[in-house]
Amino acid sequence: VLFKKGETIRKQGTAMTHVVSVNSGLAKLYLEGAGMRNAIIRIVRPTNFIGGPGIYLDTMHHFSITALQDSVVCFIDIMAFKKIIDSNKAFSREFMKDFSRNILSVYSRLISLTEKQNAGRLEDSLLYLFNEIFEGSSIPRDITKKDIADLSSMSKESAVQGLRQFQKDGIIVITKNDYRLMDRDKLIRMSDFG
Q1: Beta-bridge partner residues of 174
Q2: Residue 112 and residue 39: Cα distance in Å, rounded?
Q3: Residue 167 and residue 172: Cα distance in Å, rounded?
Protein backbone atom coordinates (compact mmCIF):
# COMPACT_ATOMS: atom_id res chain seq x y z
CA VAL A 1 0.00 0.00 0.00
CA LEU A 2 1.31 3.46 -0.86
CA PHE A 3 1.08 5.97 1.96
CA LYS A 4 1.69 9.65 1.22
CA LYS A 5 3.94 11.70 3.48
CA GLY A 6 2.08 12.47 6.72
CA GLU A 7 -0.52 9.72 6.40
CA THR A 8 -1.14 7.47 9.39
CA ILE A 9 -0.21 3.86 8.71
CA ARG A 10 -1.37 2.49 12.07
CA LYS A 11 -3.00 4.16 15.08
CA GLN A 12 -2.06 3.56 18.71
CA GLY A 13 -4.74 1.60 20.56
CA THR A 14 -6.18 -0.17 17.52
CA ALA A 15 -6.29 -3.93 16.97
CA MET A 16 -3.18 -5.49 15.47
CA THR A 17 -4.19 -7.75 12.61
CA HIS A 18 -1.02 -7.38 10.54
CA VAL A 19 2.70 -6.90 10.95
CA VAL A 20 3.94 -3.92 8.95
CA SER A 21 6.99 -3.94 6.68
CA VAL A 22 8.27 -0.65 5.28
CA ASN A 23 9.41 -1.57 1.76
CA SER A 24 10.36 1.95 0.64
CA GLY A 25 10.27 5.38 2.18
CA LEU A 26 10.50 6.26 5.84
CA ALA A 27 8.14 6.07 8.82
CA LYS A 28 8.12 7.15 12.44
CA LEU A 29 6.90 5.11 15.40
CA TYR A 30 5.64 7.29 18.23
CA LEU A 31 3.72 7.22 21.46
CA GLU A 32 0.80 9.62 21.58
CA GLY A 33 0.89 11.53 24.82
CA ALA A 34 -1.53 13.89 26.49
CA GLY A 35 -1.97 17.37 25.09
CA MET A 36 -0.80 16.51 21.56
CA ARG A 37 2.74 15.76 22.80
CA ASN A 38 4.24 12.79 21.00
CA ALA A 39 7.40 10.84 21.75
CA ILE A 40 9.08 9.33 18.72
CA ILE A 41 10.38 5.88 19.62
CA ARG A 42 12.31 5.33 16.42
CA ILE A 43 12.50 6.04 12.72
CA VAL A 44 11.98 3.04 10.44
CA ARG A 45 13.79 2.51 7.16
CA PRO A 46 13.25 -0.21 4.58
CA THR A 47 13.00 -3.15 5.10
CA ASN A 48 12.17 -3.26 8.80
CA PHE A 49 9.27 -5.15 10.29
CA ILE A 50 7.05 -3.28 12.73
CA GLY A 51 5.04 -5.33 15.17
CA GLY A 52 5.90 -4.61 18.76
CA PRO A 53 4.74 -6.26 21.95
CA GLY A 54 1.21 -6.65 20.64
CA ILE A 55 2.24 -9.57 18.41
CA TYR A 56 2.32 -11.97 21.36
CA LEU A 57 0.68 -10.06 24.22
CA ASP A 58 -2.65 -8.50 23.37
CA THR A 59 -2.78 -7.96 19.57
CA MET A 60 -2.96 -4.17 20.05
CA HIS A 61 -0.88 -1.40 18.50
CA HIS A 62 0.96 0.26 21.39
CA PHE A 63 2.25 3.11 19.20
CA SER A 64 1.24 4.97 16.07
CA ILE A 65 3.06 4.78 12.74
CA THR A 66 3.12 7.66 10.27
CA ALA A 67 4.84 8.00 6.89
CA LEU A 68 7.63 10.61 6.93
CA GLN A 69 8.05 10.26 3.16
CA ASP A 70 5.86 8.69 0.51
CA SER A 71 6.22 5.05 1.57
CA VAL A 72 5.26 1.64 0.25
CA VAL A 73 4.18 -0.59 3.11
CA CYS A 74 3.39 -4.29 3.09
CA PHE A 75 0.90 -5.75 5.58
CA ILE A 76 1.52 -9.35 6.63
CA ASP A 77 -1.28 -11.22 8.36
CA ILE A 78 -0.29 -11.68 12.00
CA MET A 79 -1.18 -15.39 12.03
CA ALA A 80 0.89 -16.03 8.87
CA PHE A 81 3.78 -14.08 10.42
CA LYS A 82 3.61 -16.17 13.61
CA LYS A 83 3.67 -19.36 11.52
CA ILE A 84 6.83 -18.17 9.76
CA ILE A 85 8.43 -17.33 13.12
CA ASP A 86 7.51 -20.78 14.47
CA SER A 87 8.62 -22.75 11.41
CA ASN A 88 11.68 -20.89 10.09
CA LYS A 89 14.51 -20.81 12.64
CA ALA A 90 16.85 -18.73 10.46
CA PHE A 91 14.15 -16.07 9.89
CA SER A 92 13.22 -16.16 13.56
CA ARG A 93 16.85 -15.59 14.62
CA GLU A 94 17.26 -12.65 12.23
CA PHE A 95 13.95 -11.16 13.35
CA MET A 96 15.01 -11.43 17.01
CA LYS A 97 18.41 -9.85 16.22
CA ASP A 98 16.70 -6.93 14.49
CA PHE A 99 14.17 -6.60 17.31
CA SER A 100 17.00 -6.67 19.89
CA ARG A 101 19.02 -4.01 18.02
CA ASN A 102 15.97 -1.76 17.93
CA ILE A 103 15.29 -2.26 21.64
CA LEU A 104 18.92 -1.48 22.55
CA SER A 105 18.75 1.70 20.46
CA VAL A 106 15.56 2.74 22.27
CA TYR A 107 17.16 2.00 25.66
CA SER A 108 20.19 4.11 24.76
CA ARG A 109 17.97 7.00 23.70
CA LEU A 110 15.86 6.63 26.86
CA ILE A 111 18.96 7.11 29.03
CA SER A 112 19.81 10.23 27.05
CA LEU A 113 16.30 11.62 27.54
CA THR A 114 16.36 11.05 31.29
CA GLU A 115 19.93 12.11 32.07
CA LYS A 116 20.63 15.02 29.71
CA GLN A 117 19.51 18.61 29.38
CA ASN A 118 17.80 19.87 26.22
CA ALA A 119 21.04 20.50 24.29
CA GLY A 120 22.37 16.99 25.05
CA ARG A 121 19.10 15.35 24.04
CA LEU A 122 19.07 17.33 20.80
CA GLU A 123 22.70 16.40 20.09
CA ASP A 124 21.95 12.70 20.70
CA SER A 125 18.88 12.82 18.45
CA LEU A 126 20.90 14.37 15.63
CA LEU A 127 23.63 11.76 16.05
CA TYR A 128 20.95 9.02 15.97
CA LEU A 129 19.59 10.44 12.71
CA PHE A 130 22.99 11.05 11.08
CA ASN A 131 24.59 7.76 12.20
CA GLU A 132 21.84 5.14 12.50
CA ILE A 133 19.07 6.25 10.18
CA PHE A 134 20.73 8.11 7.30
CA GLU A 135 24.28 6.80 7.80
CA GLY A 136 25.93 9.94 6.54
CA SER A 137 26.16 13.69 6.88
CA SER A 138 22.72 14.68 5.63
CA ILE A 139 19.19 14.43 7.02
CA PRO A 140 16.41 15.24 4.51
CA ARG A 141 13.91 17.90 5.50
CA ASP A 142 11.25 15.17 5.42
CA ILE A 143 12.32 15.01 9.06
CA THR A 144 10.73 18.21 10.36
CA LYS A 145 11.84 20.35 13.27
CA LYS A 146 8.76 19.05 15.10
CA ASP A 147 9.95 15.47 14.47
CA ILE A 148 13.39 16.35 15.85
CA ALA A 149 11.69 17.93 18.89
CA ASP A 150 9.52 14.82 19.44
CA LEU A 151 12.59 12.61 19.07
CA SER A 152 14.40 14.76 21.67
CA SER A 153 11.46 15.02 24.08
CA MET A 154 11.40 18.79 23.96
CA SER A 155 9.17 21.56 22.67
CA LYS A 156 9.43 22.56 19.03
CA GLU A 157 10.50 26.05 20.09
CA SER A 158 13.40 24.68 22.17
CA ALA A 159 14.48 22.38 19.35
CA VAL A 160 14.41 25.24 16.81
CA GLN A 161 16.47 27.40 19.17
CA GLY A 162 18.98 24.56 19.66
CA LEU A 163 19.25 23.90 15.91
CA ARG A 164 19.87 27.63 15.30
CA GLN A 165 22.63 27.59 17.91
CA PHE A 166 24.23 24.50 16.33
CA GLN A 167 24.14 26.27 12.98
CA LYS A 168 25.69 29.42 14.49
CA ASP A 169 28.42 27.22 16.05
CA GLY A 170 29.20 25.67 12.64
CA ILE A 171 28.09 22.16 13.64
CA ILE A 172 25.24 21.90 11.13
CA VAL A 173 23.91 23.84 8.16
CA ILE A 174 20.17 23.94 7.60
CA THR A 175 19.19 24.26 3.95
CA LYS A 176 15.88 24.15 2.12
CA ASN A 177 16.43 20.43 1.41
CA ASP A 178 18.35 19.03 4.37
CA TYR A 179 20.28 19.35 7.60
CA ARG A 180 24.00 18.93 6.85
CA LEU A 181 26.51 17.84 9.44
CA MET A 182 29.62 20.03 9.25
CA ASP A 183 31.50 18.99 12.41
CA ARG A 184 30.73 15.44 13.56
CA ASP A 185 33.57 15.41 16.12
CA LYS A 186 32.30 18.56 17.83
CA LEU A 187 28.75 17.18 17.94
CA ILE A 188 30.03 13.94 19.49
CA ARG A 189 32.12 15.84 22.06
CA MET A 190 29.16 18.03 22.99
CA SER A 191 26.91 14.97 23.26
CA ASP A 192 29.39 13.31 25.64
CA PHE A 193 28.97 16.24 28.05
CA GLY A 194 25.21 16.50 27.43
Answers
A1: 179
A2: 14
A3: 5
